[in-house]
Amino acid sequence: MKDLTQKAIDVCVGEGASYADIRIVTIMDEDITIKRGNIDVLNLTTRTGFGIRTIANGGLGFAGSYLLNTPEIERVAKLSVRIAKASGKTRKKPIRFVDEPAVEDTYITPFKKDPFSIPTEDKISILMEADKRMREASDKVKMTQSDYRAFREDKIFASNEGAFINQQITFCGGGISVTVAEGGKQPQTRSLPASFRGDYSTQGFEYFEKLNLIDLSEKSVDEAVQLLDAKQCPSGKMTLLLDGNQLMLQVHESCGHPTELDRVLGTEAAYAGTSFMTPDLVGKLKYGSDLVNITADSTLHGGLGTFGYDDEGVSARRTELIKEGLFVGYQSSRETAAILGLERSSAGMRADNAQHLPLIRMVNINLEPGDWNRDELIADTKYGILLSTNKSWSIDDKRLNFQFGTEIAWEIVNGEIGQIFKNPTYAGITPEFWNAMDAHTKDDWRIWGTPNCGKGQPGQVMYVAHGVGMARFQNVDVGITKEEGK
Q1: pTM to 2 decimals?
Q2: Cα separation values, 41 from 129, 176, 206, 207, 330, Å
Q3: How far is CA 22 from CA 10, 315, 345, in A?
Q4: Burial class of 75 by CB neighbour count within 10 A (0 to 12, 13 to 18, 19+)
Q5: What is the DSSP string of 177-246?
Q6: Cβ atoms of residues 316 and 306 within 8 Å
Q7: pLDDT tens for residues 231-287?
Q8: Taking all residues of the chain, what is their mean pLDDT, rounded to a whole number?
Q9: What stretch of H or E contains 71?
Q10: pLDDT for 98-110, tens place per residue?
Q11: E strand map for 381-424
């Protein structure tokens, strides 16, 4: 591989590139879905390719291929440089990267059980049993689904600056979902441990086992059946509590995306918009209450945004985005860091395959643990609504105005959890909402992983994560739709 990467770099430099890097990537992806006792999806795919990124005449070029041999590397390297030179003719200012130490290193995700060495039959057996228990738990069950996914990315990165990094990232996880219906009642769905096919971690098969999907199956049906006869979630301004599996999406949409510096600079706009968090607000915007501390941290054990190095060879690190409520930093690349005069990139550049150009992507974007325990926070709440498990979301193209819906809610009265509500929603404006946070827990703080964050054109789907506990917000619009709120 060193011979191939050096060949690519030599060709790029020989064609006039001032900078060149190459990623050689092999991805293994195993996907299993069981629906109503039948195998719906059973896929194991492997794909290998490479991508070459260059700077020439001040412009950026990129090209890739799935054919890995010396003649193809020569062809793609020359193409990348031609694209860079053409791009340079249209730029007002030449592209510049902030300095980054070039290293030779290896990083491998630590795990106990290799998910790709576990027999497929064992995985199907767990999913089938969870699915069976959901179907047998009630005659109101109309649809069941149990999911498993394992992913492995082997990647070599090399640059003309002298970097040569060998990296292997592995993640694993899954989830269950059940839909119930009865008569003319509105069907209800419960997904555990989280919606959108579950929860994932950069660990091995041991993490999937730890999810205990079989044990969760009866709980999912019980709560779904209760929702059939539950009251509609009340509307009005009230105290709102968000469970971790919903709070993680709140962090994702209203802090993670708007602090991506390419959105701020306008180079990412067509897919889900830009950002209200512009450079003139750094160090000035009171994004949240003094209790709000949000970081981008790619060093945490188990996070889907955890790695050794990003796709520019930048080492994993922790970057403060919000400190004691104040907006202080961005997720950046070597190019965008140079534009803003930052010393280093936040190590956020990643591509979802070899033939895609790396973009600024969320890593582990975390709401740092608070001072409360979960039971204490509930006991301290005189009246409120606790929402859990995302069902829907909407947010504008500046990441300011939002509305979220969840699968389930519970009423809290005098510090005790009471009746269940169906169809809960809440809405807000990002800085107002985060300034209303008056508590965040520590004992149930954990990293939730989601492998389906979309961005870019052509679209890329990246695996990211969010560390959160349960948080409380005051005077939030609960149960109010956009139309009612106008």
Answers
A1: 0.95
A2: 16, 14, 22, 21, 39
A3: 11, 17, 19
A4: middle
A5: EEEE--TTSPPEEEEES-TTT-EEESS-HHHHHHT-HHHHHHHHHHHHHHHHTPEEPP-EEEEEEE-HHH
A6: yes
A7: 999 999 999 999 999 999 999 999 999 999 999 998 888 777 899 999 999 999 999
A8: 96
A9: helix 70-88
A10: 999 999 999 999 9
A11: 383-395, 401-413, 416-422
- Measured in degrees and rounded to the nearest 5, phi and psi for residue 245 equal -75, -10
List CB contacts of 408: < 8 A, sequence separation 6 or more: 190, 223, 227, 387, 388, 389, 420, 421, 422, 424
Output the six-digit token pair for 360. Answer: 């600024």
- Gap between the Cα atoms of 27 and 147, Å rounded: 20
Amino acid present at 113: K
Q: How many CB atoms lie within 10 A of CB 484?
A: 10
Chain centroid offset of residue 252 CA: 7
Structure tokens at 246: 């919903």
User: Residue 436's Cα: distance from chain center in Å?
Assistant: 24
Question: For residues 455 and 276, what is the distance between their CA atoms, to the nearest angstrom?
Answer: 17
Expressed in percent and rounded to 5, the helix, strand and coil fractions of the chain are 25, 40, 35
Quote the CA–CA distance of 109 and 260 in Å, as a whole number: 25
Q: Which of 65, 97, 93 is nearest to 78 (CA)?
A: 65
Q: In terms of DSSP bridges, do strands 460-468 and 446-455 run parallel, antiparallel, or are they unpaired? A: antiparallel
Instruction: Say which DSSP state 300 is in.
Output: S
What size, in residues, is the chain? 486
- What is the rounded CA–CA span in Å between residue 152 and residue 168? 7
Q: Closest by alpha carbon to 423, among 402, 392, 394?
A: 392
Query: CA-CA distances (angstroms) from residue 202 to 246, 247, 359, 448?
Result: 20, 20, 21, 11
- Phi first, then psi: what are they for 50, rounded to 5°? -145, 155
106, burial (CB in 10 Å: exposed 0-12, middle 13-18, buried 19+): exposed
- Cα–Cα dist 12/486, whole Å: 56
pLDDT tops 70 at residue 480: no
Angle between helices 2-14 and 70-88 (to 10 degrees): 40
Residues in contact with 171: Cβ distance below 8 Å, sequence separation at least 6, in sequence order: 109, 150, 151, 200, 201, 202, 203, 304, 449, 451, 463
pLDDT of residue 96: 95
Measure the CA–CA gap between 273 and 276, rounded to whole angstroms: 10
Domains present along the chain, CATH in parentheses = 2-229 (3.30.2290.10), 232-485 (no CATH)
Residue 212 one-letter amino acid: N
